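Tutorial, part two.
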Amino acid sequence: MLIIKNAKVFNGEKMLDSMNIYISGSKINKLEKGEISQIPLDCEVIDLNGKLVTPGFIDIHMHGAGGYDVMDATEESIEQIASILAMHGTTSFLPSTVTMPAESISRSISVIDKCMRSKKSMNILGVHLEGPFINRRKKGAQNEEHILAPSISAYESIVDEGKDIIKRVTLAPELDKDNSLTKYLKDKGICVSAGHTCASIEQFTESVKSGVRLCTHLFNGMDTLHHRDPGVVGGGLTNEGVYVEFIPDLLHLNKDILKLIVLAKGEDKCIIVTDSLCATCLKKGMYRLGDQHVIVTDNGARLKNGALAGSIIMMAEAVRNMINEVGIDPVKVLKMATLNPAKVLGVENYLGRIAEGYDADMNILDWDFNVERTILKGRCL
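Running the prediction step on this input gives:
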């Protein structure tokens, strides 16, 4: 057993003072306040002297780190990405594919499935399919050559044997005829997200009725908000049943827009993501996103044409940016990085909280919100 004592705990919803966390195996056994009367034999004790413990960060949109890309489609790459993320506080994530030939996406899904089954990468929740069902006009850093029209048959031909691990699909709702793919995915419990889209407010609203429940990197990869045509941005912000994710690297979005999103949407429906590339944790230079070259400079990660191509931040930095630069209350920000992403994926019954029976995934933070130590499935990293 492991006991973390004398901790300030963010439990997923609020701060609790002077708490003790009992961990048995991979689960949280008990959470209690006050002095520990008796410590069991053969029990490791970590005294935090009032430092902050949070649930582990959950990143539902990322493409790589440390020189490794999800689309490498090798076990080494997936395992290294998982390890790097865990060491920086991300205890759950969705490896995200990009628009490439169908066989390349299938191969990546197959490798991720193999890594999950081997249990070498315990922080992988499943796969986020970002493309190929997107709008060419808003392709961003996706390769236009391999974009496909949304259809059930096209989806099934890509995911093939990896159907069980697809947890999220980003698509352009206006291209999904009669919202047939959206309805199909919803019925299978997959989170459908509107992104890389030119959908009108009417098209978006209909897609929400059919099953869309998230907006992919809000404001980026979609038409600009207009007072007579609010589009996906306006629809995402005003539809109470929809979550919105955003990239707080301070390049994709101005800090005042980030504040606007939180004020308009509310803390319970906002999700922080990184959209990180293989260049994350590395120096400036030339890298890749799928089959496209990306140049990393002080001006971010961009394609040769200047288009932004994901970020090079980790979740911990995203959290600090929202607190220190945008000025959002830490409790709200931490919820956006833990409980909210767990809810949108439907895993909030065992992830995203520090509570009895939950997975023992947590971060120990200093009061500048830097990750000092991570615990993954009860194991100190």
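The mean pLDDT is 95. In part three we will examine how such features are distributed along the chain.
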